Amino acid sequence: MHAQNNQESVLQYIYAPFAKEGTILSYIQDIQRKTGINISYSSSFLHLNKRVKLSGNEHTTGSVLNSILQGTGIQTAALNGKIFLIRESSQQQYYVISGFVKEMISNELIIGASIYDPVTRKGTVSNAYGFYSLQVPDTCAGVIFSHIGYGPVFHKLPPADDGPLDIYMTAHNQLQTVVVSGENDTLTSQPGFINMPLSYLTNFPALLGEKDVLKSLQLYAGTSSSLESSSNLLIRGGGADQNLYLLDGVPLYHTGHLFGLFSIFNGDAVKDVSLYKDGFPARYGGRLSSIVDIRTKDGNMKEWHGSVSLSPVSASATLEGPLIKDRSSASLSIRRSLVDLLYGKRYLEEYGQYYMYDINFKLNHLIDKKNRLYLSFYKGQDKMLINSTNPIVPLFDDYSFAWSNLTAAAKWTRVINPRIFTSTTATYSQFHNLFSQTSVIPLSLVDSVFVKGKGVSRIRDIAIRNETEYTISNSQHLSLGGGYTYHNFAPTAYRTNISRGDAIQREAPRYSMSEFTLYAEDELNLLNDRLTVRPGLHVGALAQHNSFHISAQPRLLVRWELPKSQYIQASFTKMTQFVHQLTTPVVNLPTDLWVPSTENIKPEHAYSYSLAYQKQWDRKWRFSSNLYYKQLKNLVTTNTVLNIFDNSDQWEKKVIDGKGYNYGSELMIEKLQGRLTGILSYTLSWSWRQFDKLNGGQMFPYKEDRRHNLSLAVKYRVMPKWHLSATWKFSSGAPFTLPVQIFPDYDWGRNIYGYLDERYSPFANPANYLPYSPRLNNYRLRSIHHLDLGSTLYLGSKKRFQHVITAGVYNIYNRNNPFIVSFDQFSFFRIDEVYPLQLYQYSLFRALPYLTYTFKF
């Protein structure tokens, strides 16, 4: 009875609060000071800095404590003249920490950083804008922040209310402020997904010293190139047109410089690269094989830095720094070829002319702690002229090629609350290409006809979209969004001017259409995070005046974590592609056309299945294997090999549809840490196509089928400033069609509906020679393999100015790899003689040394 009275007297002690609003700690301290009552509690579960409000009706110690502790799961108890704050045994309180992960020196946002609570073993990763959200218990003492390119950070978490918490990380083995290297510059690799940081681009030898994002990705299982040394990325037997390339969120339709030998992505401007081969997140759509998501640098918000690089084929310069310190920054990168500058005018007149350039610009402005604005711009262009006087390739015509990309994006990101992050983006994209041919046709020794033909193709996109991420809990993350794109296609327009006669002009119809997308995805971590389930749905629709196509594309990924750092993963994805590329059977020429789905041409579909296993040892070694199967429907190809600009108003009549099957297995071993790091990857794959109107309706190997792909890449750190590297790549030869017989067709009867190959129809003879092939792609080129060696030296690491010297040799054992082949029977002939069919192989590169110098400040 005495204890009960004592309890009531302590909790009912008259007390006048000092204010209606304050922190929990301020009220507890005020009660103790004014009443002399001792209050006992544990700061490990009590958020002392949390601000609370009173109703104004509290006049006792008990009523004030009950109000400020409401919803915390903490109860008051009195004993022996003291007040105890006790947490309910059945409850554990959680709160959310959120913010941005940034680089210490530049304030550059870090993508893919891991945030981990070592006690609860719960974690998350920073998104594409460096934002994270994690729910932690009130007993959490601290959280670990880590990233493969940065030193880990352990941040203590004193009891606090929900609020922004920005984390700053320091790069591994950072040489002064701008050179990043070391044993930890590896990438994140999971089945079906690769994330590659900036530092990884300098790990291995590069053709002519040009750092190339797409060629770096080709070292990994499931990836290859269409031709030797090409940057065209082939994923699991799909064509180059089946990859969605995003530059700061803007889709690109052509990614090659110099006919695909180099990509348009300037390595000095790139910040982060993500490749998805399967298990596509629901926010992506529009292509069948892969997603390549590339982000450029935001710009240093602390101080100005820059670099200048010289390679055998190009020069580039980068400048970045703050416009308003810690608020606004800008980044500018420029790259231009040196071919036309290094070689004299006389040389160019004989062999042809070529130049290209890239410009990347980005503006990053922090409006406040919750709002940020990005503006980005890219312009790239190629021009090439091949003269008829070229001594290497004898021509009767002059050819001119010009193609360009232009993109712009405005992006607004907002932290609505610690659990919800959203981004809204408006984009503009244009791809334009021009092909022209000038011919002089002799009529007699003194007379000739001049003919000039020009073909133009153009695509313009204007789009807006929104992406929202909602962290419901550590075990559930919801993503949803949608967008609208206005497409304007002008596939081909052809014009011919003739010195004698009327000009010919064919204007192909233009296509204006609207594309709509909606998506939702829920990522669930179950059974103490051992099981991850990620269901999603992407819905796309394409509408124009005479057709409408809609596609529901379900996605499902399941990952099961096994003991000893092992897990298995299975995924299913449906992807739909509303645009198609019509290609000619030659090297990656920009004359290939992008055309939309129409009333007569259906969208392409892919149904992809994969099963993978991964194992890691001591964070030093990683092994993964993957089985995949993909069924493709409504694939399109052309039923002719005529110049794609001919009969431009008839292009829909050249298209036939069919289906395809891609399947195979991938194996990969990675050495992640130590002085020696590297990758060994192998892919065994099949890629088939089947069209009712081709090859007698029978399946045949796709032109991008590569049965075996093997890559070995190693890097050895001799000392912190000196690295040696080597790569060896092997690929099976590409399929191609070779006739087994050719025979004369004097009445040209076989060419009524076929293609007349002028090589077998010489003007001096009325006979037309027809090639006969029993099936398509009945032969393969020789296999391709080459060994490349490289060395990188960093100088001046402790000074304001730094120097990077990169040297190496491509194809050091001088392998004569096939680039393209052609067959011919004769150049000059007599009708009464027999000439054998001959096959000619053309190689692009033999042993080729390079030396690249970079100056950084």
What does this structure look like?
Its main location: membrane. Residues 217-287 form the TonB-dependent receptor plug domain. Keywords: Cell outer membrane, Membrane, Receptor, Signal, Transmembrane, Transmembrane beta strand, Transport. This is TonB-dependent receptor. With 857 residues, this protein is mainly beta. It folds into 3 domains: 2-87, Phage tail protein beta-alpha-beta fold (3-Layer(bab) Sandwich), CATH 3.55.50.30; 94-171, Carboxypeptidase-like, regulatory domain (Immunoglobulin-like), CATH 2.60.40; 295-738 and 773-856, TonB-dependent receptor, beta-barrel domain (Maltoporin, Chain A). Helix content is 5%, strand content 55%. The protein has 6 helices and 57 strands. It has a 22-stranded antiparallel barrel. Strands 16-17-24-25-20-21 form a 6-stranded mixed beta sheet, with no helix packed on it. Strand 18 and strand 19 (233-235) form a beta hairpin. The radius of gyration is 32 Å and the shape is elongated. Mean pLDDT is 82; it is low at 1-7, 174-186, 390-395, 749-767 and 825-829.
Summed up:
With 857 residues, this protein is mostly beta strands.
Name of the level-1 CATH class of the largest domain: Mainly Beta
**Uncertain segments of ≥5 residues (pLDDT<50)?**
1-7, 174-186, 390-395, 749-767, 825-829
Which structural class do the helices and strands define? mainly beta
Helical segment count: 6
Taken as a percent bin, the fraction of beta residues is: over 45%
Radius of gyration: 32 Å
How many distinct folded domains?
A: 3
What is the CATH topology classification name of the largest domain? Maltoporin, Chain A
Q: In CATH terms, what is the architecture of the largest domain?
A: Beta Barrel
Q: Which of globular, elongated, flat, extended, rod-shaped describes the shape?
A: elongated
CATH superfamily of the largest domain: TonB-dependent receptor, beta-barrel domain
Total count of strands: 57
- Helix percentage: under 10%
Oligomeric state, counting identical vs distinct chains: single chain
Largest sheet: 22 strands, antiparallel, barrel
Distance between the termini: 80 Å
Subcellular location: Cell outer membrane
Keywords: Cell outer membrane, Membrane, Receptor, Signal, Transmembrane, Transmembrane beta strand, Transport
Pfam families: CarbopepD_reg_2 (PF13715), Plug (PF07715)
Membrane topology: Multi-pass membrane protein
